[in-house]
Amino acid sequence: MQKQKEKHMKQKQLYVIPELLSSASVVKAAAVDKAAGIPLLHNTTVHIGTDADALTTACNNHDEGKVVLATNRSLLATIIVTVRLFLTLGRDILKPVLGYEYSQAFDVVGLIKTIAIPRTAEELLFVLQKFQAYFTAHPELEDESRNITAAQAEALHGQLLTALNNVNSQVGAVQTLAQLRDAAAEQMRKRIRGVIDEMMGALDPLDGRWLAFGFNMPGAQETPDVPENLRVTVIGPGTAASKWDASARADHYRIWMKIHGTNDDYVAVGSRAELDFTLENLPAGSTIDIAVSAVNDGGESQLSNAVTITTHA
Fold first, then answer.
1. Which of 92, 132, 202, 221 lies at a 20 to 30 A Cα distance from 298?
2. Global pTM value
3. Tens digits of per-residue pLDDT, 6-36?
4. Residues 176-208: pLDDT tens digits?
């Protein structure tokens, strides 16, 4: 098998906030533990701790803001249901006066071009105002036993407007909190890049202290790509042949097997430098998942996509 060109480890790109939070915590702890042996002059333990804590706080604030927003939206949805019921009952009370099907007579109560009760808060606010004005002008049509009155229309209008304003206000607050979180995240990424740059000048590329910070060792060989295009064929009783395509930077491959009903996870069953492997002594009449990983001095790839076979009974 032709040797692939060696590539050395690059550092992880911390784009996702949860990964960045985890890395910040590890770097903060490692900076405290290793500070004496690695003189970080521009990205000190204090700087790292301050930025890590700021990111944690910003993320917590954003999460709490989203919880408040979800609560406000739930309250808005509840009041919308109440308002729609009120308007439905009010409309039905007015049908003997305004008609049982839509006509322009319904425009006076805000039901324009249809007598269907609207669903959005903005539309409902408009209709509530019209109902309040109509019942104020025609108090004889109010149904106090069911609280279908001008006063109730006004009260519901106030509740709905407050709930809608609370949602809109919290949407803006969450957007601001997201901006603050993103700014803290970018500062933390900058801090981590600064730590890496300083460590590059202070440590050997294969120094194990890189790992204590959660970083890759720059001098280590990059792990291979995941093997692709795995093919597995049952060729006889208890025997299956497997083949796959070469992976970049692979020195050899490890073959994995999971027998349904027997193994909870994959078990390594062989290692091979070539691009094929024969699995033997497989249990008869079994369903088996086969996968392959690629290995070099830098580590091991993730497992390939599995191929499922069923052996002869």
1. 202
2. 0.67
3. 566 778 777 788 889 999 999 999 988 887 7
4. 999 999 999 999 999 999 999 999 988 888 888
Domain with CATH 2.60.40.10 in the chain: 231-310
pLDDT, tens digit, 9 for 90 and up, residues 142-154: 999 999 999 999 9
Q: Which residues contact 140 (CB under 8 A, 6 or more apart)?
A: none
- Taking residue 271's Cβ as centre, other Cβ atoms within 10 Å add up to 12
Pair 79, 157: CB distance under 8 Å: no
Domain 231-310: assigned CATH number: 2.60.40.10
- pLDDT value at 123 more than 90: yes
Q: Which residue has the tokens 């492997």?
A: 277
Determine the Cα–Cα distance for residues 200 and 147; give it in Å rounded to an integer: 75
User: SS in 3 state form for the chain?
Assistant: CCCCCCCECCCCCCCCHHHHHHHHHHHHHHHHHHCCCCCCCCCCHHHHHHHHHHHHHHHHHHHHHHHHHHHHHHHHHHHHHHHHHHHHHHHHHHHHHHCCCCCHHHHHHCCCCCCCCCCCHHHHHHHHHHHHHHHHHCHHHCEHHHCECHHHHHHHHHHHHHHHHHHHHHHHHHHHHHHHHHHHHHHHHHHHHHHHHHHHHHCCCCCCHHHHCCCCCCCCECCCCCCCCCEEEEEECCEEEEECCCCCCCCEEEEEEEECCCCCCCEEEEEECCCEEEECCCCCCCEEEEEEEEEECCEECCCCCCEEEECCC
| Residue in this structure with the two tokens 């249990």, named with its chain if needed | 283
Provide the β-strand partners of residue 232: 242
Cβ burial 229-245 (10 Å sphere, 16+ → b, else e): ebebebeeeeebebebe
Beta bridge partners of 309: 288
Mean pLDDT for 162-167 is 98
Percent of the chain having pLDDT more than 90? 73
